[in-house]
């Protein structure tokens, strides 16, 4: 159902004074008041600017407001389409009341509602600047610095005691995990067919072969029932991806790994804080790999983290991270490593972000719940998974658009949302159809999800009013009114 504005707060009788108008405007009602007659017919409008001009002309606060109202205002019609009414907004006309056939206001549009609504934005309102300034003031800006160690400890505490190694990005985290367990030429690694390309790219960078498995239709994540038939003597690892903030069904995956002596490397890039049967993702497999790109739950701009319960594996990751240099023997290299270190500057941002991680996660849940509440009655929208054994973090609120029921396809809905300045993203392309990973197989679920999936604005700082704006736009589009 469309969430309408509380119009009565913007409506005053034409006998009202400028003081009464100012009180309403001061209450924060989007900068406009509609003056109506006894029959509730709109006779004119007043904005902050109109009131200021009246005062400059000598009017007092007790002057009748109607003497200064704008009677030649632009208005939309309830019988017109939303697109037609929105077209009336511009840099000069920033408020458009929507009138019924009798001239009564039933809704209104505001220029503020047409401001671009991004898919994601970082939340940097904590101690980020303070800590980065400290790095610059002290000169500790590279990978040798106290903030790197502080960040790793915070993340370890967050995961309940795992060994944590900060790295340059989420892709390098995955690459290091694979290299630490010896994945190389001749090996095979099973990955979900629906994931971001980094999950598969790191396998190829190890010289190994990517084996794609279809995803589960309920959770959208790696389907355990599709894994066992893909295992060969060359299978070295499985990378379950906790997609769009929802955990994989890990127990059967872990059982398959244990039975076949296969390493389990969790891709947690999109799911920091999500839990599986009460345990946080990143603590279930041999490794957890996290990303801190600017659109993630917490960010360091770029950056990543490798977590593991195994001290020996953690030590190997640390060596590989730093050029393969042997600890305690500078410039001696037992391994051909990488420069995958995180800078102290990045870690300083991470420390400030981790100070607010619980707030971020709580807000993500609120965002997901508000979207679900607003969209659940729209026929043909399949809302994101949230099964009983998992706690999703709604990293990005994603849904499916079933054109058979909505009457509109995912791509057309996406285009029309962009038309009203609401950013969105389609789901990833299936791995198996892309040139570097081409392969045959049964991928019906991933193909369908890729065609139907759409992600909506979900940053930590998104306002409830902005979520409502997205939901209203979707409802209008699906109902053919926009």
Briefly, what is this?
The chain is an alpha/beta fold. The protein has 3 domains: 7-114, CBS-domain (Roll); 128-354, Type I PLP-dependent aspartate aminotransferase-like (Major domain) (Aspartate Aminotransferase, domain 2, 3-Layer(aba) Sandwich), CATH 3.40.640.10; 358-478, Aspartate Aminotransferase, domain 1 (Alpha-Beta Complex), CATH 3.90.1150.10.
Key terms:
single chain, 15 helices, seven-stranded mixed β-sheet, 33% helix, 3 domains, alpha/beta, Aspartate Aminotransferase, domain 2, four-stranded antiparallel β-sheet, CBS-domain
Could you outline the blueprint of secondary structure elements for this entry?
Layout: E1 11-13, H1 18-26, E2 32-36, E3 42-47, H2 48-56, E4 76-77, H3 82-86, E5 95-99, E6 105-110, H4 128-138, H5 146-159, E7 163-167, H6 170-180, E8 188-192, H7 198-205, E9 209-213, E10 235-238, H8 250-260, E11 263-267, E12 275-276, E13 279-280, E14 287-291, E15 304-308, H9 311-321, H10 344-354, H11 357-375, E16 381-382, E17 390-391, E18 398-401, H12 403-406, H13 410-419, E19 425-426, H14 444-452, E20 453-455, H15 464-478
Parallel strand pairs: 1-2, 4-5, 8-9, 8-10, 10-11, 11-14
Antiparallel strand pairs: 2-3, 5-6, 7-15, 12-13, 12-17, 14-15, 16-18, 18-20, 19-20
Helix pairs in contact: 4-10, 5-10, 6-7, 6-9, 11-15
């Amino acid at each position: 159902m469309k969430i309408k504005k509380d119009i009565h707060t913007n409506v005053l009788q034409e006998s009202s004074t400028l003081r009464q108008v100012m009180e309403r405007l001061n209450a924060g009602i989007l900068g406009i008041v509609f003056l109506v007659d006894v029959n509730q017919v709109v006779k004119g409008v007043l904005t902050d600017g109109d009131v200021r001009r009246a005062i400059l002309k000598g009017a007092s606060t007790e002057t009748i407001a109607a003497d200064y109202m704008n009677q030649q205002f632009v208005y939309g019609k309830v019988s017109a389409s939303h697109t037609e009414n929105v077209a009336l907004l511009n840099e000069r006309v920033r408020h458009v009341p929507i009138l019924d056939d009798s001239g009564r206001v039933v809704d209104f549009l505001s220029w503020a509602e047409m401001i671009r609504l991004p898919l994601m934005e970082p939340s940097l309102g904590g101690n980020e600047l303070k800590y980065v300034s400290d790095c610059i003031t002290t000169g500790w800006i590279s990978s040798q610095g106290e903030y790197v160690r502080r960040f790793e400890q915070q993340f370890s505490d967050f995961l309940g005691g795992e060994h944590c190694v900060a790295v340059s990005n989420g892709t390098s985290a995955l690459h290091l995990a694979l290299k630490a367990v010896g994945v190389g030429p001749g090996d095979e690694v099973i990955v979900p067919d629906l994931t971001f390309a980094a999950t598969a790219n790191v396998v190829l960078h190890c010289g190994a072969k990517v084996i794609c498995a279809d995803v589960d239709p309920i959770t959208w994540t790696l389907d355990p029932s599709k894994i066992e038939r893909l295992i060969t003597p060359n299978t070295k690892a499985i990378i379950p991806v906790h997609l769009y903030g929802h955990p994989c069904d890990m127990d059967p995956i872990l059982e398959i790994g244990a039975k076949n002596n296969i390493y389990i490397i969790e891709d947690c890039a999109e799911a920091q804080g999500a839990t599986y049967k009460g345990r946080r993702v990143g603590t279930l497999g041999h490794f957890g790999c996290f990303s801190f790109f600017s659109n993630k739950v917490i960010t360091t701009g770029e950056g990543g983290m490798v977590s593991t319960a195994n001290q020996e594996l953690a030590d190997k990751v640390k060596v590989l991270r730093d050029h393969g240099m042997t600890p305690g023997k500078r410039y001696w290299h037992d391994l051909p490593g990488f420069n995958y270190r995180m800078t102290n500057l990045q870690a300083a941002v991470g420390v400030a972000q981790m100070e607010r991680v619980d707030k971020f996660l709580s807000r993500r849940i609120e965002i997901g719940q508000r979207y679900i509440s607003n969209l659940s009655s729209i026929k043909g929208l399949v809302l994101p998974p949230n099964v009983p054994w998992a706690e999703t973090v709604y990293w990005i609120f994603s849904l499916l658009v079933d054109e058979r029921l909505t009457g509109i396809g995912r791509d057309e809905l996406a285009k029309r949302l962009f038309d009203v300045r609401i950013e969105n993203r389609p789901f990833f392309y299936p791995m198996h159809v892309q040139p570097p990973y081409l392969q045959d197989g049964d991928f019906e679920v991933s193909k369908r999800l890729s065609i139907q999936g759409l992600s909506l604005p979900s940053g930590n700082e998104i306002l409830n009013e902005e979520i409502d704006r997205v939901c209203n736009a979707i409802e209008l589009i699906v109902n053919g009114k926009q």
